[in-house]
Structures are given as C-alpha cells and as structure tokens.
Inverse folding.
C-alpha cells in the first residue's frame, strides 16, 4: 500500500483534481486515471483498462455524477489507458461527450468501438477552454512513445499530466515519488522511449513549463522539489535499447524535421511581430481618428452656433457657459482617447473596479444623448451598484461605438423617432449589458461582418469600419468578456457579457 494514502478512495492532488485509479497489488505497472472536477464539463484523463474499471467508476461517482464528464483525454491509444472508454461512454450517456486526443491516434482509438466525437488537439490550437473558462494546454511529444503522443498542462495549478513520460516501474509502489524515483523511471524509459534525441526533444518542451506537480499515467506523482533533477537525469538516458538501429535513425531524422519546422515557425513569428510593430502607429492614429469624429463634430457645431449668435449680438452668458461645458466634456474625452490607445499597446495594464452606470452616463453625455428628445427615447434599466473590473475609459469607448452606430442608423434612415433600451443585469457568473434599439435591425448579410476591421456601410469620408472592431477587442482581449450582436424585436441588440471574478 502506498505510504500515507488510502488508495481505496479517490485522492485529491490539487484543488478540484483527483487521482481515481486503483492500486494493483503485486503489479509493478500501476496505471493512473485522473479527474478534473469542472461542473457539467468535468474532465477524465487516461481512464485505463477494464482491470481498473469498477474502482475508477466508483471513485468518480464519489466526487461527481458521472454524466458530468464531458471530456475524456487520451494521451495515447494503448489498452492500459483506453480500453475502458466504451463502457465509460455508456455510463456517462452524453451526446456531447468528446474524446480529446491527437488526430494520429483517433484513427486507432475508434477500433475500441468508441462512439463519441473527437476533439483533436492539433485541430484546436493545442488547447481546450471550457465554457467556464477552465483551460488546458497540450504539448505534442511525438514518438514518446506514440507518434501522436502529447502531454496536458493545467496552468492554474501548474500540473502536468504527462502520459507515459515520467512513468515508472515499481515493485513497491509509493503514491508520491521521492529522491530515488529516477531509478524506478529509468528502465521504463529505456524500454519505451525510442531514442535519446527524440526523448530530449519532448523534455525540452516540458522543462520550459512552470510545473508544481507531474501526474504520470504510470509510477508515482512527482512534486516540484524533485522535478528539475529528474529531468536533468533523464536527459542522459540511453533510450530505445530494443529498437533496430536503422529504424532509430529514421525516427531521429523525423524529429530533426520537426525541430527545423519549429525553428521556421519561430522565424516567421518574429517577422510578423516586426510587421505588426510597424503597423501599430498607423493603426493607433486610425483608431484615434475614428473615436474623435463624433466629439469633433459636436465641438465644431458648438463653435458655429457661438460665432453665429455672437455676430447677431444675441449670445447670453448662460448659453456661453453651456456650450463651453459641452465642448470641455468632448475635449476631455478626446484627451482620454489618446491616453487609452497609448496604453492599449502596453502589456500588464492595471484596471480597477468601477460602476457600470457611470460609464454609461459618460458615454451618453459624450454623444449628447443623456436626455430624451422628440427623436430618441432612452430607456435605462440599470442597477447603480453593479461594478465590473477593467479600465472605465475603454469601456466608455465600447458604449460610444455601439450608440454611435445606432445614432448613424437613425440619421441614415431618417427615422422620425427611435427607442434605445440599455439594461444591466448580474447573476452568479456574469454581468450582462444589453443595448437594444427598434430601428429595423442589421442587414442579414452584414450581421456576421460588423465586428470585422474596416467593414463599414458608411461613406469612407465618415466611417472607418473600426469602431465595433475595437469595441470587441476591448471587451474580449482586455476584459475577458464577449461582445455579440443579433436582430431581435424589430431592431438590433448588442450583448456584452463579462465574468464577475477579477
């Protein structure tokens, strides 16, 4: 029995992460499935064979309802890892259950009579992000020991689910590894890893990660204090001891091609980075120009009225004060815009909690829409206590962009009247802001394009097509939310959803 751990029950190894395997007595080849508790999108990793099936299912059910599992990760296709999947599928009984693996392995896994759809990591940018925001990153480790082998990294808890890598053969199994673990891992890797070069290619990827815990499919779980020395020891292993020399050379040639490809991709990324830097200044100027058009038009209108009335000697002190205050607000907004866009390109910008209703009121003031007119009726359903985290001036720009587009539609269609409804709600997960109008909606052909850069239905003299694109970037890149639009009840509806946690 592993020291100090009751393996007859699930063992928690990190917040919401559990070992759900079985201690196979007198078997040096221990197999370890893991469970990530994630609501109705929980994740089962390397569930194992039918030898462990009953115990693994029992332990999963002690933590969650088994039909809460939405993803099954298979790091390779061997039966000690994947044979139980068809029976587990039947228990989970979900149409949306996904098998997360590499495309080179899904071709083989189907022979177990697996019926679920596949989430092939190489077709999804080597990552998985659930609707709750939980994230896993995948790193391919080809030929260690399968062509499509990979490891899974959970960045929040800094855990590496390493599949066969770091596995060990232990006559006397310990749940957690100690300083002697290399001696137990050595024979396994010498037999199952095809060559020293190929294995070191995988180790080079792994050692770049910030890892607090390694959870392999075999052997013992490895804590941070042993990881660095273990990797260094493994770099010097002579692997592939039972592989034909010619075949070994072919594998090394394959890995060399992969390394060359990786180098080419890095060089391309550097070129793209340089190009993007050169484009940033021009893009920033274009963005500022777009945000300035509306307030400049208002300032110009105020100046025109003041000049005309001054010439006619009918200008009162009250009207001068009113027009100056209006111009001052627009000029302040224009100044903030310059600062915001300069900060936009800086990393690690600091935000604060701010009240959403203040941002909405500021946007309405900037657009001169803070009071109802005969033409536009503003309906506000706002809880003044609701706060979100971010930069208030950026959020104001988002609202200004949306309202400006609605304002332009009212003018272009020459509508005699229009209603704009702004509502704000908050539940346990999200704060949602909805801006809706009754102006006829967005043309169906344009609905999927309105957030694209430089897409505009206006004449180029008055529209750049950047406003809604920038708004979406601010919400989704800077505030970890979503911005979408749809047609509803005879008008357009813009929906901003933001996670409540910082």
């Amino acid at each position: 029995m592993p020291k100090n751990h009751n393996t007859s029950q699930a063992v928690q190894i990190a917040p919401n992460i559990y070992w759900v395997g079985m201690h196979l007595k007198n078997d040096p080849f221990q197999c370890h499935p893991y469970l990530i508790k994630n609501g109705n999108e929980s994740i089962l990793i390397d569930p194992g064979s039918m030898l462990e099936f009953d115990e693994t299912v029992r332990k999963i059910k002690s933590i969650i309802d088994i039909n809460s599992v939405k993803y099954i990760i298979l790091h390779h296709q061997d039966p000690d890892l994947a044979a139980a999947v068809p029976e587990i599928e039947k228990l989970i009984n979900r149409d949306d259950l996904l098998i997360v693996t590499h495309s080179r392995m899904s071709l083989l896994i189907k022979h177990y009579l697996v019926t679920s759809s596949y989430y092939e990591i190489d077709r999804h940018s080597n990552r998985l992000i659930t609707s709750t925001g939980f994230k896993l990153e995948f790193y391919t480790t080809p030929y260690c020991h399968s062509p499509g082998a990979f490891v899974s990294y959970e960045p929040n808890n800094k855990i590496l689910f390493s599949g066969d890598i770091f596995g060990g053969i232990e006559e006397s199994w310990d749940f957690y590894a100690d300083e002697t673990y290399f001696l137990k891992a050595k024979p396994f890797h010498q037999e199952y890893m095809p060559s020293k070069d190929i294995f070191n290619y995988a180790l080079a990827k792994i050692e770049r990660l910030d890892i607090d815990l390694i959870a392999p499919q075999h052997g013992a779980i490895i804590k941070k204090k042993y990881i660095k020395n273990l990797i260094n020891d493994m770099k010097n292993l002579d692997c592939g001891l039972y592989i034909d020399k010619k075949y070994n050379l072919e594998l090394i040639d394959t890995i060399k091609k992969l390394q060359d490809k990786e180098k080419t991709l890095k060089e391309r990324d550097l070129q793209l980075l340089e190009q993007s830097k050169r484009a940033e200044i021009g893009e920033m100027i274009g963005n500022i120009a777009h945000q300035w058009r509306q307030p400049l038009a208002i300032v110009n209108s105020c100046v025109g009225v003041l000049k005309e009335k001054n010439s006619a000697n009918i200008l009162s002190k009250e009207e001068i004060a009113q027009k100056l205050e209006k111009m001052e607000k627009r000029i302040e907004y224009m100044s903030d815009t310059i600062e915001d866009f300069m900060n936009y390109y800086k990393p690690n910008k600091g935000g604060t909690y701010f009240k959403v209703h203040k941002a909405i009121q500021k946007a309405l003031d900037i657009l001169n829409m803070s009071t109802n007119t005969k033409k536009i009726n503003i309906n506000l359903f706002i809880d003044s206590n609701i706060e979100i985290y971010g930069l208030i001036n950026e959020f104001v720009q988002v609202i200004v962009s949306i309202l400006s587009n609605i304002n332009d539609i009212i003018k272009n269609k020459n509508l005699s009247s229009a209603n704009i409804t702004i509502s704000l709600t908050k539940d346990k997960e999200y704060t949602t802001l909805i801006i809706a109008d009754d102006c006829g909606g967005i043309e169906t052909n344009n609905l999927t394009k309105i957030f694209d850069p430089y897409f505009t239905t206006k004449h180029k003299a008055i529209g750049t097509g950047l406003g809604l694109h920038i708004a979406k970037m601010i919400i989704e890149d800077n505030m970890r939310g979503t911005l979408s639009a749809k047609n509803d009840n005879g008008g357009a509806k813009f929906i901003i959803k933001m996670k409540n946690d910082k």
Summary: DSSP finds 13 helices and 20 strands in the chain. Residues 11-243 form a domain with the Metallo-beta-lactamase; Chain A fold (CATH 3.60.15.10). The radius of gyration is 30 Å. The mean pLDDT is 83.
